Amino acid sequence: MGTKGSANRQRIVDAADRLFYSRGYNQTSFSDISDETGIPRGNFYYYFKTKEEILEAVVESRVAIFKSMLEQCDSKSSDPRERLLLFVGLPLENEEQIVQYGCPIGTLSSELAKDQVNEISNAKLTAVFDLLIEWCTQQFHLLGFDTNAKQYAMDLIARLQGNTIIANVYGDSEFLMRTTNDVKKWLKQITSN
Amino acid sequence: MGTKGSANRQRIVDAADRLFYSRGYNQTSFSDISDETGIPRGNFYYYFKTKEEILEAVVESRVAIFKSMLEQCDSKSSDPRERLLLFVGLPLENEEQIVQYGCPIGTLSSELAKDQVNEISNAKLTAVFDLLIEWCTQQFHLLGFDTNAKQYAMDLIARLQGNTIIANVYGDSEFLMRTTNDVKKWLKQITSN
DNA sequence: GTCTATATCGAGATAGAC
DNA sequence: GTCTATCTCGATATAGAC
Fold first, then answer.
1. Is A158 part of the contact surface with chain B (CB cutoff 8 Å)?
2. How far apart (Å, rounded) are the C-alpha atoms in residues B158 and B146?
């Protein structure tokens, strides 16, 4: 195992992940990460040349997390319809955080879209969305949807994002629960023939 | 007219509004606003005691802008159905900016939700969403919807937000146009009896 | 009311001892 | 590999001349 597998490196990435989510990337300082981990600031530069490299590692970590969530959906059911329903229910598993800080991908994307700098990281972030959309597209394909499978997938992700935003703005977990059910009903309806 | 009506004050607010939108609140410095307006940094403190006061003024300005957009919709048609269709089409009028920087209220809300500080400004921001939701609720009421009028209103706003996010992430104005039409179709469908 | 000079702080980043 | 000390810069904010 190289430096990528170092325990300290992992602790930095994990703490940065939490802080980038709860405070935002730009509003998280090396001192914040240092306070959380107990690892002194100067040590960070042994693992990462710049703050942006930490961001890249965090994004990679989130990609891995979402991949494993999709695999969970795959393993729990072999029925694409049931898989999509499981997928739609995922935000409720972290309902409290979602309501408080929004979607970990959506909010980071919005933030980085305003930074002229981080082109690399931004490309990697759309990769998370790509991952989710491709997975959903595949499920819709299996359900018999053809050319419009990707449209349905993008619409589904858009709906989840929109519901998350409103739930976050109003700190309203009831709204998140209700609209999650609405999306599930919509899914059942369009796949019931 | 007091200091609130000063031309310089207004120029500061207008420049800050643009910059908070394109770069984000936290990533916009007094120097940026100074560069845009030609007004030296130190002068800002004659009109605003802190940066957060500038933010409050910007939020007030955005509230006013959205109010006038709603009044435009009101004046163009007296049919609530037609008004809602006009409302849904609004994002396309600033399509380029929407695709590049996202929704001016949605992205600012997401950003401030992660700042532990700006409670006041955040309260004012939800006021913008309140404004839109109440206006839509009223239209749905006029269309004969009763207890579920507000639900439809919130769902409509959520859909617009979600579509904006995806369009922004992918820089995809085609998606914004297609989903705008989809929302219009949905509106026509639920109001056609 | 307007502008210059400057204070103060915290950010990211570096050098080098151990 | 780890940690301390420090550099440099740019941020918000202040003081005070004009």
1. yes
2. 20
CB < 7 A contacts with chain D (nucleic strand): A 3, 6, 8, 39-43, 45-46; B 28-32, 41-42, 45, 49-52
Here the tokens at position A34 are 């240092």
B169–A158 C-beta distance less than 8 A: no
Site from A51, A110, A179 to mutate, B interface, most B CB atoms within 10 angstroms: A110
Q: Kindly list the structural domains of chain B, giving each domain's residue range(s) and its CATH number in brackets, ordered by start.
A: 1-49 (1.10.10.60), 62-191 (1.10.357.10)
Neighbours of B12 (CB within 10 A): 24
- Alpha helices (H) along B24-172: 30-37, 44-47, 51-76, 80-93, 95-101, 106-113, 119-142, 149-170
The closest alpha carbon to A11, from A21, A35, A29, A22, belongs to A35
Q: Quick one: tokens of A91? A: 């935000």
B29 reaches A (C-beta below 8 A): no
Averaged pLDDT of chain B: 94
Cβ-proximal residues to A158 (8 Å cutoff; 6+ apart), any chain = B159, B162, B163, B165, B166, B179
Tell me whether B144 touches chain A (CB under 8 Å): no
Q: Quick one: DSSP state of residue B114?
A: T
CB within 8 Å of chain B, chain A residues 93-132: 100-102, 106-107, 109-111, 113-116, 125-126, 129
Taking the Cβ of residue B166 and every Cβ of chain A, the question of whether any pair is shorter than 8 Å is answered with yes
Q: Are B110 and B125 in contact (CB under 8 A)?
A: no
User: Which of B179, B172, B29, B157 has the alpha carbon at shortest distance from A113?
Assistant: B172
pLDDT per position as a tens digit, A101-135: 999 999 999 999 998 766 776 787 898 999 999 99
| Model confidence pTM above 0.90 | yes
pLDDT exceeds cutoff 60 at B2: no
B105's tokens = 């209220």
